[in-house]
Design a protein that fits this description.
mainly alpha, 9 helices, globular
Length: 283
């Protein structure tokens, strides 16, 4: 397989293009329904864009850090990159009025920064099996706390906008303005399962890096694990609904499963079948 994984560039470019379209659909009063987020439970194609990006971040971590020698300088670069991404998110939240009193501290770039930092450190300091256990553990712990732990005088398992365990925790730990007033879809607590979205990408990267497998074997394994995650997420949805706004565990498996299958299809088309005429310089 090409040292430069063009299929990953394709998937990354496709995700960024989709991100641009959903963030600027033209007229916000006449938005094509697939370009809208689900109101609450459930998922539309638009709800897959952000987790796909975190998935690609995870794949990229595996592919890039596997070639690096662990050193203090490498850790410095990882931390520096995370801080820059986080601060860029803060800057965009302030621009153009720089109203610090109403600053939204959390956001999309801030979540990307945290996921990248945690996943990169996990990749460098833990084994593949432990990464898998941590990823699953985060999803299970998040499910338990969201569904079975009472909070602030409310009964356990409440999953309403602004009235759920994640929103309650964020009300104590998230400084500044919340995007939805009393809660934020990119809050710190719901970033925990978002880290698992990144870990799912790292798992895919591990499959791709396995030199004992042919390209066809890698494609089959990605399809297998992607299908398994998609089915598991679908059945988990019955007791812990798929929901991007609070990044539920079922949503992680559902979106990561689809992401794995799209990556597998991209590898099959570009790396196996060599349909690369339009990807000469990458995306």
């Amino acid at each position: 397989m090409n040292s430069r994984l063009i299929s990953l560039d394709f998937f990354r470019g496709l995700t960024i293009a989709a991100m641009i379209v959903v963030n600027d659909p033209g007229s916000w009063s006449h938005v094509y329904s697939p370009l809208r987020h689900a109101d609450w439970h459930g998922a539309t194609p638009t709800d897959l864009v952000f987790p796909f990006f975190l998935f690609v971040v995870g794949v990229s971590i595996s592919l890039s850090l596997s070639k690096r020698k662990i050193s203090g300088n490498l850790y410095f670069k990882i931390i520096k990159r995370s801080i820059i991404i986080f601060l860029l998110g803060i800057f965009l939240a302030l621009f153009p009025n720089f109203d610090f009193e109403n600053l939204r501290v959390v956001g999309v770039l801030q979540r990307i920064a945290i996921v990248y930092l945690v996943c990169a450190l996990l990749y460098l300091n833990t084994s593949f099996s432990n990464q898998l256990k941590i990823g699953i553990g985060m999803l299970v712990v998040y499910w338990i706390t969201m569904m079975f732990v009472p909070y602030g005088g409310n009964i356990a398992g409440t999953l309403e906008p602004g009235n759920n365990f994640a929103a309650w925790v964020d009300s104590f730990i998230v400084p500044g303005r919340m995007y939805q007033g009393t809660w934020d879809p990119e809050g710190f607590y719901s970033t925990i399962p978002a880290i698992s979205s990144g870990i799912s990408g790292m798992i895919s990267g591990k499959i791709i890096l396995n030199t004992n497998n042919s390209i066809k074997d890698k494609i089959i394994k990605l399809f297998y694990w992607g299908t398994l995650m998609l089915i598991t997420g679908h059945f988990w949805d019955y007791i812990f609904p798929i929901n991007k706004h609070i990044w539920t565990s079922s949503y992680v498996l559902f979106s990561s499963g689809i992401g794995m299958m799209i990556l597998a299809m991209s590898i099959w088309i570009i790396d196996e079948k060599k349909h690369t005429s339009n990807t000469k310089f990458g995306l």
